[in-house]
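Usage

Read records sequentially. Each one opens with the input sequence:
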Amino acid sequence: MFKFFNRVKTVVSSELNSMLDKAEDPVKMLEQFMRDMENDIREAETAVAKQIANEKMLKRKYDDAQALADKRMKQAEKAIESGNDDLARRALEDKNNQQQQADQFKDSYERAEQDSNNLRQKLDEMKKEYQEMKLKKDSLKARAESAQTRTKMNRTMSNIGSDESRQGFERMEERVMQYEAEAETSEDLSQSNRSLDDEFDELDNKDNVDDELAALKKKLNK
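and closes with the structure output:
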């Protein structure tokens, strides 16, 4: 479990390059790496908790056995003071048995304590490495998103100035010029299609205006 965590940590850079080559989403892959590390840390915490519980159990057994051995020693001394050698002998025999068990529990407890300390240290290292990888992940994520944004913007700007876009504008400009030419042509045709009656009506209207202007001047003594 600890080895797997270290393996994940050391291959992140190579995996990142590989997934970029395969056109994989680096942001999603980095998030998956972090989830894997979090699972490893949870498993490590569970293992450390079990080891600490085992250490405490051995310590309690050692304390109980040592306490009973000490008790038997005091009882043997009391029996001797009372002149009861047989009782003292039996107390010493049990004291020796309890001391032997206490010594065994002590050895087991000390080994368990050392194992617990080692596991705690490894767990602390895992958490430290996780925080370092988290910072690196955030940096890589920001860089990846920035690169994707720049790529998208460059593609958009490239399309704006592309030959296809320019040709499209030129076609639309020609279409507008064609519409304008058609409109001018229709106006010319409308003028050429005026009848003689239309021209005489226009002349009559002009004469009427001239007569009205002369009458107005006469009225004003101009």
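Summary fields computed downstream for this record:
- Helices lie at 2-21, 26-81, 85-160, 163-192, 196-219.
- The chain is about 95% helix and 0% strand.
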